[in-house]
Amino acid sequence: MKPNRVTAWMEATACPRFSADRERRVGDFARRLARSMVQEGHFFSFRAAVEFLNVPPEDGDPVRDRVYELAFKRVLEEGSATAAARRAGLRWIARHLGLSEKQAGWVELRVGRRVFEEYLAFALAGGRLDPDELEYLRAIADGLGIGTRRLLLGCLAESGGRLLERLLEGLAEDGRIDDRDWTLLLDTVGALGVTPDEFGRLLRPHARRLVDRLEVEGRERPSLARRAPAARVMLDRL
């Protein structure tokens, strides 16, 4: 896994939760606090840093979470969330931010699931995952203490629509899906611990909603009309 490729995915998996202006403000405060934490080390005080930077009271918790999010993304970028030294470093950061173990876990789960989901969709749209890509996804899942099967099942159930759209971009050409490509896709899903039956069962509801939406969009914008037939082919495959 090339570092610049992973870095690009870290940047592409931001999870905006506020208005654009507030997102920029929270992100800016978080980056400044992260730099302060690195510079001050054990002398770092989250409360003092927040007061010094004049962080609005309503932004305190989001900024704290975002600092930890940045730290966890850095660990994922370096290739492992399970190495003892890195895990100890994350615990230190969480403690100095005033995050409980449970709160830190929720931040890690949110970030890790998003990275896993986006990277999986990108890789599957290109065919199948190579050994390095499979290992990277397993490392994310192991770092979250979940395992690839459980993490993938959750992504399919909750975010299957986004995954299907990415698959359509890479697999469906001229409204059709090649048998070989589909077999490779199912083989890759199987390598992550999910059976073809589970894959189809979890994605069928998302596929039906996607077909309905694309048909409406195709009637309103003829330039998009070709997408609905490809989605119907995907639904038939599932």
Task: List the topology elements.
Layout (H helix, E strand, L loop, with lengths): L2 H10 L7 H21 L5 H7 L7 H19 L5 H14 L3 H25 L5 H13 L4 H24 E2 L2 E2 L1 H13 L4 H25 L6 H11 L1
Antiparallel strand pairs: 1-2
Describe the structure.
About 75% of the residues lie in helices and about 0% in strands. It is mainly α. β1 and β2 form a beta hairpin. α6 packs antiparallel against α7, α6 packs parallel to α8 and α10 packs antiparallel against α11.
| Topology as a string of helices (H) and strands (E) | HHHHHHHHEEHHH
From the spread of the alpha carbons, the general shape counts as elongated
| Strand line-up in the sheet with most strands | 1-2
Major sheet description: 2 strands, antiparallel
Query: Cα-atom Rg, whole angstroms?
Result: 20 Å
Overall average residue pLDDT: 82
Count of alpha/pi helices: 11
The assigned structural class equals mainly alpha
Give the helix proportion (percent range).
over 70%
The stretches of 5 or more residues where confidence is low (pLDDT under 50) are 1-14
